[in-house]
Amino acid sequence: MNTTTDTIISRRAAAIKPSSTLAITARVRAMKAEGHDIIGFGAGEPDFTTPDPVCEAAVNAIRAGMTRYVPVPGIPEARAAVAQKLRAENAIDCEPDQIIISNGGKFSLYLAIQAIIDPGDEVIMPTPAWVSYQPMVELAGGNIVEVPTTAESGFLAAPEDFAAAITPRTRAVILNSPSNPCGTMYDPDAIRAICDVLSSHDRITLISDEIYERLVYGGREHLSPASLPSMSGKTITINGLSKAFAATGWRVGYACAPASIVKAMSKLQSQMTSSVASFTLPALVTALESCSEEVDRMRGAFERRAALMEQRVSVWPGVTCPPPMGAFYVFPDVSSAFGRTSAGGRTISDAGSFAESLLEEAGVAVVPGDDFLGCGPNHVRLSFALDEASIEDGCSRTGDWLGRLT
Ligand code: PMP
Ligand code: GLU
Predict the structure, then answer these.
(1) What is the pLDDT of residue 315?
(2) Fewer CB within 10 Å: N-end or C-end of the chain?
(3) CA of 43 relative to ligand 2 center, distance in Å
């Protein structure tokens, strides 16, 4: 242990874990750069490039001299375009002063949590859940209250599970539908029933992470909780360009919330990042106003991959997995491999050693489920944001590797 580092680094920074999803992504990138033949099911990001009109809008903005500081929550045109998108596509009755644009949905979430959570407050969240919610809540001094779900229920929590988790300290609920890492989603009736429970509690704000909202399959319908009159004044809706517009590197996300919460988030943003990069704002407008066809095309490709993935994973020996409904993830239960030995002589004791051995021996990268909480430690996450030939190759490598476990 390095004593100098121990005394320099704050307890807060020392306590936080790095994002395991980004760590796997970085490891796969490095292994590929060294010439290894890896199929990467790790990265939670589309393999497509950002649609041309979005790129052109940013380039044109730079060339036109849009290179200076912009208003903290975004230029009026961009806030208006987001409000218009949410009104037209999500039936959320909102105005531009209820919109703040930030550095990725991730920073929108961070600001939202900082704006409403005080030390000791409780934040309810169905688990397994995305890796970054817990650290964000803990950085605000809050405590996560898990509502554990099971694969049998499609990882969906029931309204009464939320009701049972609520205490006088509950300040927020985080809902992420479609879900990372589960790949499942709540149908509109389930959302209405959950909101019926939450709407009667004055002090509870719903943080609805809808970053995968456009990526839904099998004709399923996404319902935004903020479109329900009982929830519009107590919901923070999070979304962004990353997933639907294949723009993870742009770092553009947004939140829609009651104006008082947006004001608090803007105040925080003014002291932290000032705003997003100026020239991404016209690009955001172009994306929201004129790239629907490109989004549909990418969604169609993800839907075909979801079907392929479901079919290929279903033949893996000993593995069970709810079919994907949205986002681009499957979250199979691989616990039947625990306690066994791989062909390379490794003992598979948990999701971590499963993922490590699969990567080293078969060249297939997956994310161990531990950091997603709940029943996560029995699962691994596979992202199917890669072409169909690679999905076929990675799935057969994994099936063969599983078949050789003793
Ligand atoms: N929420 C969920 C559930 C995610 O998977 C991601 C992906 N990182 C985000 C929010 C944030 O994405 P971004 O910051 O790229 O907008
Ligand atoms: N959301 C993606 C994932 O879960 C990107 C990485 C991250 O921000 O966690 O893999």
Answers:
(1) 94
(2) N
(3) 7
Q: pLDDT for 125-158, tens place per residue?
A: 999 999 999 999 999 999 999 999 999 999 999 9
373 Cα to the center of ligand 2, angstroms = 15
Domains in the chain and their CATH numbers? 5-49+294-403 (3.90.1150.10), 52-290 (3.40.640.10)
Span from the CA of 44 to the centroid of ligand 2 (angstroms): 5
Looking at ligand 2, which residue's alpha carbon is closest to its atom 5? Answer: 44
| pTM exceeding the 0.90 threshold for the entire prediction | yes
Atom number of ligand 2 nearest to Cα 19: 9
HEC letters along the chain? CCHHHHHHCCHHHHHCCCCHHHHHHHHHHHHHHCCCCCEECCCCCCCCCCCHHHHHHHHHHHHCCCCCCCCCCCCHHHHHHHHHHHHHHHCCCCCHHHEEEECHHHHHHHHHHHHHCCCCCEEEEEECCCCCHHHHHHHCCCEEEEEECCHHHCCCCCHHHHHHHCCCCEEEEEEECCCCCCCCCCCHHHHHHHHHHHHCCCCCEEEEECCCCCCECCCCCCCCHHHCCCCHHHEEEEEECCCCCCCHHHCCEEEECCHHHHHHHHHHHHHHCCCCCCCHHHHHHHHHHHCHHHHHHHHHHHHHHHHHHHHHHCCCCCCECCCCCECCEECCECHHHCCEECCCCCEECCHHHHHHHHHHHHCEECEEHHHHCCCHHHEEEEECCCCHHHHHHHHHHHHHHHHCCC
